[in-house]
Amino acid sequence: MTIPAQLDQARQLGNSSSKFPLVSLNCFKLFLLAASLTATLAAPRLFAGETNYILTPQPPATPRINGAKITGVRPGHPFLFQTPATGERPMTFTAKRLPRGLSLDSQTGLITGSVTKPGTYRVQLTAKNNLGAASRELRVVVGDTIALTPPMGWN
């Protein structure tokens, strides 16, 4: 349906008078037409022969650990860190030099617990699947420092 035809149909629905249930139905139809018109106007126009390409490469099937390289927690407070890894599943996770009080779920990569002793702990994370393995250091800072990583939205 062309844009002028959609506008005419919307005008007809808006001017029609009927009993209450039909008015609600007509209002709903008017809303759907407005949404359709908005999507039609906002949709990009493709020229003949033009092709859309997704330029972001697909993640490899081999493991790769992504995300922050530093995280922090106050002494005695709950700690929760999900190891951000891409790659074919199933995948197993290991961690060397975890501070006392933290534990790693080897199937999910979730690190939980509580650390009471302040300090900087350099944890070696490893993600492994049947195609390979990837390792990366995560620095866990336990102390009174605020905002080791900036809040979302900061540049």
Structure explained in plain terms:
The protein is built from 2 helices and 9 strands, in the order ααβββββββββ. It is an alpha+beta fold. A 4-stranded mixed beta sheet has the order 2-9-8-5, with no helix packed on it. It has a 3-stranded antiparallel beta sheet with strand order 3-7-6, with no helix packed on it. The longest helix is centred in the first third of the chain and has 23 residues.
Radius of gyration: 27 Å
| Class based on secondary structure composition and strand pairing | alpha+beta
Instruction: Point out poorly predicted stretches.
Output: 17-23
Number of strand segments = 9
Summed over residues and divided by their number, the pLDDT gives a mean of 80
Biggest beta sheet attributes:
4 strands, mixed
Helix amount: 10-25%
How many helical elements?
2
Question: Strand-residue fraction?
Answer: 25-35%
How many angstroms does the end-to-end distance come to? 44 Å
Helix and strand element order: HHEEEEEEEEE
- From the spread of the alpha carbons, the general shape counts as elongated
User: Largest sheet, order of strands side by side?
Assistant: 2-9-8-5
Give a quick summary of the entry.
The protein has 155 residues and is an alpha+beta fold. Helices cover 23% and strands 31% of the residues. A hairpin with a 2-residue loop joins β8 (119-129) and β9.
